[in-house]
C-alpha cells in the first residue's frame, strides 16, 4: 500500500524567502511521486513529477523537488517566494503497479508581503 | 475537448434528494477518476474507470454512491438520498494511461452543498 504524509497543514513565508514544503511517502514498490497545486476555486494543476529518472525534478513556476529514497522524502522547494505562489499544495504517490494516485492532506502556503 | 469539463460547477440540494454530477474527460483519455475533497481535507479517491469498466471502486463511501461511464468518454457520479456529510467538492480527472503519462488532468470540480 502507498501513503503520503505532508508535514504542516499551513506554511507562511515572506515574499522572496525560501519555500520548503515537506512530503514523506510510504510505498512497498518503486513509487511515482507528484506535486500538485490548487489555486482558490480551481482544480488541481500538476507542478512536477518523479518517474524514476533524475532524482532532482524541475517543475513549473520555479519549483523543484528532490527524490531521496533513503529518507523516503520528496520535498518541494522554491528559492524565492512570490505572492502568486499562495495556494494549496498536494503531494501524491502512485505505485508503479497501481492505477490510482494517493494524495496527501495538503499544505496551504501563505506569502507575507 | 481541451480540458476536463465538469458540470454543474455548483449544486445546492436538499437532504434526501438525488444528484448527478457529470464529467467530460479529455478526448482520447481512457482512464477517468473521481475524487472527493471535503473542507480542510485532502483528496479522497472514489472510483477509477478504464474505458467503460471500473476496476477499482474501493473508495465509494456507501451504496448511495454509484458511477458509470459510457462510450469510453462521459462519466456520471450519482449520489442518492444525499446527506449533509456528502457536501464537498467532487473532482474528476483523466489520463491517457499510456507510456510516460503518469499524471492526471483535473477538472475544476463540482461544489456540492446539501442543506
Quick structural gist:
With 113 residues, chain A is mainly β. Chain A has strands spanning 3-7, 10-14, 19-26, 31-38, 44-50, 56-58, 64-68, 73-78, 87-95, 102-103, 107-112.
Write the layout of secondary structure elements.
The complex is a heterodimer of chains A (113) and B (115).
Chain A: E1 3-7, E2 10-14, E3 19-26, E4 31-38, E5 44-50, E6 56-58, E7 64-68, E8 73-78, E9 87-95, E10 102-103, E11 107-112
Parallel strand pairs in A: 2-11
Antiparallel strand pairs in A: 1-3, 3-8, 4-5, 4-9, 6-7, 7-8, 9-10, 9-11
Chain B: E1 5-7, E2 10-13, E3 19-24, E4 31-37, E5 43-50, E6 53-56, E7 65-69, E8 75-79, E9 88-95, E10 105-106, E11 110-114
Parallel strand pairs in B: 2-11
Antiparallel strand pairs in B: 1-3, 3-8, 4-5, 4-9, 5-6, 7-8, 9-10, 9-11
The helix/strand order of chain B is EEEEEEEEEEE
Largest sheet of chain A: 6 strands, mixed
Query: How large is the radius of gyration of chain A?
Result: 13 Å
Number of helices of chain A: 0
- Indicate the proportion of strand residues of chain A: over 45%
Please give the radius of gyration of chain B in angstroms: 13 Å
Distinct helical segment count of chain B: 0
Distance between the termini of chain B: 33 Å
Q: Averaging pLDDT over every residue of chain A, what do you get?
A: 91
| Low-confidence regions of chain B | none
Amino acid at each position: 500500500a502507498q501513503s503520503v504524509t505532508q508535514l504542516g497543514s499551513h506554511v507562511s513565508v515572506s515574499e522572496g524567502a525560501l519555500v520548503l514544503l515537506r512530503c514523506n511517502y510510504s510505498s512497498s514498490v518503486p513509487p511515482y511521486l507528484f506535486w500538485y497545486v490548487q489555486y482558490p476555486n480551481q482544480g488541481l494543476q500538476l507542478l512536477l513529477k518523479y518517474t524514476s529518472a533524475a532524482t532532482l525534478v524541475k517543475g513549473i513556476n520555479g519549483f523543484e523537488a528532490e527524490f531521496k529514497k533513503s529518507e523516503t522524502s520528496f520535498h518541494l522547494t522554491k528559492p524565492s517566494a512570490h505572492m502568486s505562489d499562495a495556494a494549496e499544495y498536494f503531494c501524491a504517490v502512485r505505485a508503479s503497479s497501481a492505477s490510482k494516485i494517493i494524495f496527501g492532506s495538503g499544505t496551504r502556503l501563505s506569502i507575507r508581503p | 475537448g481541451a480540458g476536463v469539463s465538469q458540470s454543474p460547477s455548483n449544486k445546492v440540494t436538499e437532504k434526501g434528494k438525488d444528484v448527478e454530477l457529470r464529467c467530460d474527460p479529455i478526448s482520447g483519455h481512457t482512464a477517468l477518476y473521481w475524487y472527493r475533497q471535503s473542507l480542510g481535507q485532502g483528496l479522497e479517491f472514489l472510483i477509477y474507470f478504464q474505458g467503460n469498466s471500473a476496476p477499482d471502486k474501493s473508495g465509494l463511501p456507501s451504496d448511495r454512491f454509484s458511477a458509470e461511464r459510457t462510450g469510453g468518454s462521459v462519466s456520471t457520479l450519482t449520489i442518492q438520498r444525499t446527506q449533509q456529510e456528502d457536501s464537498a467538492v467532487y473532482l474528476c480527472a483523466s489520463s491517457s494511461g499510456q507510456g510516460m503519462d503518469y499524471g492526471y488532468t483535473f477538472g475544476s470540480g463540482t461544489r456540492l452543498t446539501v442543506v
